Amino acid sequence: MCTWMASDDDFFVIRRFGRVSARVVLLMQNKIAQLEKALDDEDEKCKKEDGDNGVFENDPRWRRREVMDELSWRLERYQRFVLDHSALKARSKATDSQITYVKNWLENNNGPIRPQEASFIQKDGDLIPLVPRLKPPLRRLIDRFGSMKGATWWRVKAEKLNQSHYNHPDNFESETTIYNKEETIDKFVTFVTIVLGLAMIIGPIWLLQYVYTERPDLKIRLGVITGFLGGFTALLSIVTIARPFEVLAATAAYGAVLMVFMQLGTPGGSTASVPGMSAR
């Protein structure tokens, strides 16, 4: 199973142990809080005895020295643990497809490891990919549907993958495992994106000119622009990982371009000749 999981990033999912990690953090925090109170008590005693709380070297209060020594390593361990756990918490969860890959492999290989060792894959909400990767919705759609992911033009044989990635000639491919060239799928998604992008640029030029020639109605031309703006927004949402405000900004810029396109077919580059419009 180790070889199979290491053969593809989508197979390598592990638990983050969120619940027990939170418990450990609270335990460590409580221990440090107790030491903090002990240190404050020692400082208060020293103050009442007219001692010096600003001394570190040769501090006569042995208990305070012990507390400070313990605090130093406990704080270091606590802060390191919190930082490491926060990095895990920030990772996105494993996708349904990634979890399904592991479940199917375990099922189709008749339990290659003990049930208690394989039970980790049932903790769906606690699983994360070892190598997270941002994928646009179109790429995730290909991963989700096996018929698309299993297309022959981006398959790669396990033997070739073993030799190129792990220098291991043995074939660990199971009958239910299909390996794909990630670069080929990414190039396909890029190609689709470019084609659709060009269509969103070239299409309105010809359509607006046709509408102006056949039916020079401003409302129809505005309707065409509105339709392309909606299509452009949907396109960005499907083929990119842009955030909502980035999509809106790009759509606004695209709308400005379309308004320029609308001017191209009019005499003098203005809408003055469109029926119903008069120059001021």
Verbal overview:
With 280 residues, the protein is mainly alpha-helical. It is built from 11 helices and 2 strands; from the N terminus they run αβααααβαααααα. The protein has helices at 2-6, 18-48, 62-90, 96-108, 115-118, 137-144, 146-149, 158-166, 182-214, 218-239, 244-264; strands at 13-15, 127-129. The chain has a two-stranded antiparallel sheet. The protein is elongated.
Compose a concise summary of this entry.
The chain has 280 residues and is mainly alpha-helical. The chain has helices at residues 2-6, 18-48, 62-90, 96-108, 115-118, 137-144, 146-149, 158-166, 182-214, 218-239, 244-264; strands at residues 13-15, 127-129.
The helix/strand series, from N terminus to C terminus, equals HEHHHHEHHHHHH
**Envelope shape:** elongated
Q: What is the percent of helical residues?
A: 55-70%
State Rg: 32 Å
Number of E strands: 2
> Largest beta sheet, briefly?
2 strands, antiparallel
Q: What are the low-pLDDT stretches, counting only 5+ consecutive residues below 50?
A: 270-280
Strand content: under 5%
Tally of contiguous helical segments: 11
Mean model confidence by pLDDT: 79
Distance between the termini: 77 Å
Strand-pairing-aware structural class: mainly alpha
Strand order of the largest sheet: 1-2
